[in-house]
Each structure stands twice: as C-alpha cells, then as structure tokens.
Design a protein that fits this description.
Strand 6 (323-328) and strand 7 form a beta hairpin. This protein starts with 7 loop residues before the first helix and ends with a strand. It has eight helices and seven strands, in the order H-H-H-H-E-H-H-E-E-H-E-E-H-E-E. It is elongated, with a radius of gyration of 38 Å. It has helices at 8-34, 37-81, 95-151, 156-188, 200-208, 212-217, 236-252, 309-318, and strands at residues 196-199, 221-225, 231-234, 259-266, 270-277, 323-328, 334-341. It has a five-stranded mixed sheet with strand order 2-4-5-7-6. It is an alpha+beta fold and 343 residues long. It has three domains: 3-87; 128-188; 196-341, 2-Layer Sandwich (Heat Shock Protein 90).
Length: 343
C-alpha cells in the first residue's frame, strides 16, 4: 500500500486502527497476566477516549488543512490573474499560516514587479513616441531639401541657402541625440555625479560661455553677481550643464534688448543660483509641466529647442540632493533658482 497516495482522513483512519489493535493487544495481555476484570474496563475506557481524541483531532486537522488548501488555491489564482488583492491572513504562529503569509508576501512582490514593468513599458512607449515626433520634422525637412536640390536647377545663392537649411536641421538632430545620450546616462547611472568642493564662480562662468554669442546677437544685457570665494560641494561639470540649460532658455524667450541676471545667494543650508530674465514668462498652470521630458508650450513651438533642457537640469540638480523652483508670470519674465545643499 502506498501511503503517500492516501487522503488525510484515510491516513488518520489507518493510524486509529493501528492504535486500536496495539492497545487491544496490550489490554488482553495484561488481562491474561492479572486475570482482573478491572484491567479490561480501564483499558477499554482508555482506548475509547484515545479513539475519540484521534477522531476529533482528525476532524479539526482536516478542517484546518482544507482551509489552508482553499486559501492557497485562492492565492495562487490571484497570482495567476493578477487583478485582485487577497486578504491578508490572520496573525498566527502555525506553520500553515506562516506558509500562507509568505505566499501572500510573494504575491504582493510579484504585483509590485508587474506594476514596475508596466510603468517602464509605458515610459518606453512614451519615450519612443516623443523621439519619433522630435525626429520626424527635421528628417522630413532634410528629405525635402535634398530632393529639391537633386531635382531642381538652382542658382548658387539658392544652393547655399538650402545647404544652410540642411546644416540647421542636422544641428537640431545632433543636439537631440546629445541631449538624449546625456539624459540616458544620468537615468541609468552610467554617469555618477562627482560632488567635491569647487568654486561656484568657475561653474557659472563655464555655463555663461555657452550663451554669450546668442545674447550679443539679440543685444541682451547679461549681469552676474557671484563672489569668487563661494566654495560649495557640487559636480562642477554637470551643474554647469544645468545652469546653461536655464540660461539657454532665458536667451531664447527674452526679446531683443532684454536683460538676464545670474546671482548666487548663500543661505543657511543651501546655496541659490538664480537666473532671472525679462522674457515672456510662464503661466502658473504650465510651471509644473515644463520640467517634463519633451514638453513645450504651444506658443513657443516656433522657437528652436526640443523641450529636454529643463528636464535634464532638474535631473542633475536632484541627483545632487537639490531642487529647482520657478517663479514666473506671463509678460513679466521668469526666475529659476537652483538650490544646492552646502554639504
């Protein structure tokens, strides 16, 4: 007989039968030795209570096992479907409840992993869609320009104009790819920011060097108020990149003859790098959205840019334990502040 194929009730039945036969044998043996009827009566009573106890134990254990198997099957069904959350088991120290509790924990872990995978998939789909949208226009312009140059006879002046247009679109694509590479390296941890004590003046100066020409072209006055003695623990290269992105936006959206001010203010726990401009300003409803990747307001689609600068700036600052805040009003300019911790 293969006991591993027996049900719990049948197994306990065989155990009860074995106990009955063993106790009967012992009682009969004692009676034959003592020849006393009291031995039979006492042994019979003990055997009756033992069998009754085994019966009650069998019933109770069977109920507990049935309850456990039902809960186990229910939990497994939830894990397979992944659309409902099973109720947490009662706090108990029995082995069955411990197993049930661990299965429930496993279920929640699997649900959380599934949620993270779904979020990553949605983010990837959004990213691919955004990149496709950003690449579509310059690629179409390049195709149109090259087709025109191949099919149409044109003067040297027209040809040079088309070449300049092609160069402009390739520069836009190059800027897009460079920005995506920087963002990807930051998000995936390929690049680790190296915070160390450095002069903020040098960091700000490096960022300023990237917008001097464009500011001069638009006759925008740029003022800097930064002590050369400010030394703060930060990643100079990437912080300069973040400041440049703020300055680049300020130059883009400030009209000719406007003004941009960069000031560094030392607070008790933070240092504030403030970029103020006299540009078009940002409505309050859009101030949170401007830090999203590829986000651009409807009214600025005519301006150059892909909408990744502020997102990248926020990533750089956040990874150094800081944050960016914005104060702006349409028609009255904008004030962006990078807040970096002093340690």
């Amino acid at each position: 007989m293969k006991f591993k194929n027996l049900s719990v009730k049948h197994l306990f039945g065989w155990i009860t039968l074995g106990v009955f036969l063993i106790m009967s044998g012992i009682i009969i043996a004692l009676f034959l030795i003592t020849r006393q009827t009291a031995v039979l009566l006492t042994g019979g009573a003990m055997m009756t209570f033992t069998i009754l106890f085994l019966f009650i134990l069998t019933q109770e254990f069977g109920k507990r096992l049935l309850q456990f198997t039902d809960t186990l099957c229910q939990t497994l069904d939830y894990m397979i479907a992944g659309n409902e959350v099973p109720q947490c088991p009662k706090d108990s120290e029995t082995q069955l409840d411990k197993i049930d509790h661990r299965l429930t924990r496993l279920y929640h872990i699997m649900q959380e992993n599934r949620r993270l995978v779904d979020e990553e998939r949605k983010e990837l789909q959004t990213l691919v869609s955004d990149i496709s949208h950003q690449v579509k226009t310059p690629v179409s312009n390049l195709k149109m320009a090259t087709d025109t140059m191949l099919e149409k006879h044109m003067t040297e002046t027209e040809r040079i104009d088309f070449i300049h247009g092609i160069r402009s679109q390739t520069d836009k694509l190059d800027f897009l790819f460079q920005a995506l590479v920087k963002t990807s390296r930051l998000e995936t941890g390929v690049i680790q920011l190296d915070k160390k004590p450095s002069r903020l003046f040098d960091t700000v100066a490096q960022a300023m060097s990237g917008i001097v020409y464009e500011a001069e072209q638009k006759k925008i006055a740029v003022f800097v108020d930064c002590s050369e003695d400010f030394v703060v623990s930060h990643d100079s290269k990437w912080t300069s990149e973040a400041i440049f992105n703020l300055l680049d936006n300020a130059v883009k959206y400030t009209k000719t003859g406007g003004k941009i001010t960069v000031s560094v203010i030392l607070w008790e726990m933070y240092v504030e790098i403030k970029v103020t401009d006299t540009g078009k300003g940002i409505s309050e409803s859009n101030q949170a959205a401007i830090f999203q990747r590829f986000y651009r307001e409807e009214e600025v689609h005519g301006q150059q840019g892909i909408g990744i600068g502020l997102y990248l700036a926020r990533e750089i600052v956040t990874r150094q334990g800081g944050y960016i805040r914005v104060i702006s009003e349409p028609g009255k300019g904008s004030e962006f502040s990078i807040m970096l911790p002093l340690w």
